[in-house]
Amino acid sequence: MPRIPLGEVIETFINFLVTNFSFLTMAFTRIMESVISFMENTLMLLHPLLFIIAVSALVFWLTRKKGLSIFALAGLLLIWNMQLWEATVSTITLVLIATLTALIIGIPIGIVAALSHRVNRVVQPVLDVMQTMPAFVYLIPAIPFFGLGKVAAIFATVIFSMPPAIRLTCLGIQQVPEDLVECADAFGSTKWQKLFKLQLPMATPTIMAGVNQTVMLALSMVVIAAMIGARGLGGEVWRAIQRLQMGSGFEAGIAIVIVAIILDRVLQHLGSKKQ
Amino acid sequence: MKRSVFLSLFTALMTLMILGSGTALAQKKVRLAYVEWDCSAASTHLVQAVLQEKMGYEVEILPVAAAAMFQAMATGNVDGMVTAWLPVTHADYYERVKNRVEDLGPIVGGARLGWAVPSYVNINSIEEINYHAARFKNRIVGIDPGAGLMRLSEQAMKDYNLDKMQLMEGSGATMTAALDTAIRRNEWVVVTAWSPHWMFGAWDLKYLEDPKGVLGGEEFIHALVRKDLKKDKPEVYNFLKNFEWKDAGQLQMVMAWDQERGADRYENAKRFIKENEEQVNSWLK
């Protein structure tokens, strides 16, 4: 039986894109790289101690939870003490840019998918592919488009972490009780009024759960992203794995966990507060 | 009103960035990729140090996966690298990119592949493995499936008729971890190995004899650069062409410095430059 040349077709397609469009994506990379280094440098300008105190204060202001603020303070001090501060700042920058991008693209798609049955039918299988395709499969083809380093890493992270934002936004809007929607219709509200005054507010907790998942998935990508030169905490972990330095591997791993817990709790709180 | 303020801010920011990237291009910059292997890191940091300290370039070195390193070379995303193991280990990767890179020849020879055991294992040849299969728990600990070493090891399994053994796939890290565990327990273990590698410094190991010569002879570590480097940065091209270690021993020496507690590879590279002034200057001619 003849073998279906699926791999060859995909490779030809990617090569076609590379030869014709990579000048655009490479220009994009150059701009993004300067944005990233600008953000990193700004964050690094602050003395770590100041930064840590500011973050802990911010956490308290956002959540009013003493325990969490103390955890943030102690955790970040531990990271600083382990001499992983620079790596952490770099990772936070990367995760922030990646998740913001994922949300800016993802939430509107989720809304559209919730309102249109047809869009939904197209989006769902695409999401399945995005979530289950092993990240390394598109990391290597991403290099000709975005080069080695942070931009390619962000690209991979966005693809990997966006699906929950879309899915849960869609789900949240679809779960708004039918009678309330009918009620809004009966009072003659427009489509936009219905969306912004009823459906989105009602769906906020679910959407925030999606946001939360997106952040967590983005953080879980940092080690894979390090394989194409993203550095940061993921780079520290990856180096330690390759050199069998269990201790420093765990140190960097713990730093990732600390960042994750802080982000997770703050976001969860923001989500539940709106209810 | 608000929108126009935002717009002007945005344009200002974009202009700044475009200007910024423009000046960045004007500076003398070099990008090198490498893999976190000891030999690769030692060579790459030395190249970085020479370019920065002696030639006034700004050098970015990117630690990546081996596949990513070759892919980046092929697309011209990095200027070069000094970690291509030829003719065998990286043959697969090299075959795919050879039309798009320029091979500047070996920077060091005397590298090799083989199967290694802790020195307390009292056999000396691959031919004896099958007889002791049970003591080795019927397995040979391998690395990532894509490596040339694994392809050769599969061939060796056939050629030596090691029917009681199984070649386990894993990664460089799992291989050294398995070795570490076995040595702690004083157990017998055989791993697919290559040198220079830090494991030969960390533990007392020996290569098994390979009378049929399946695992290849001497390997060379080559420097590769992107096709247009000669035109764009002739100085860098020239240096990388001249760059080479005196012998494998010299590279091993720097690798040993890097293994010391709290070692800084860049500082060690600077130390090498200071101690080998003449050799370094000969690269710059």
TrEMBL record, chain B:
It is found in: Cell membrane. Residues 1-26 form the signal peptide. The keyword Signal applies. It comes from the Bacteria. One of its GO terms (biological process) is choline transport. GO terms for cellular component: ATP-binding cassette (ABC) transporter complex. GO terms for molecular function: amine transmembrane transporter activity; carnitine transmembrane transporter activity. Keywords: Cell membrane, Membrane, Signal, Transport. Residues 28-275 form the ABC-type glycine betaine transport system substrate-binding domain. The keyword Cytoplasm does not apply. This is Glycine betaine ABC transporter substrate-binding protein. It comes from Desulfobotulus mexicanus.
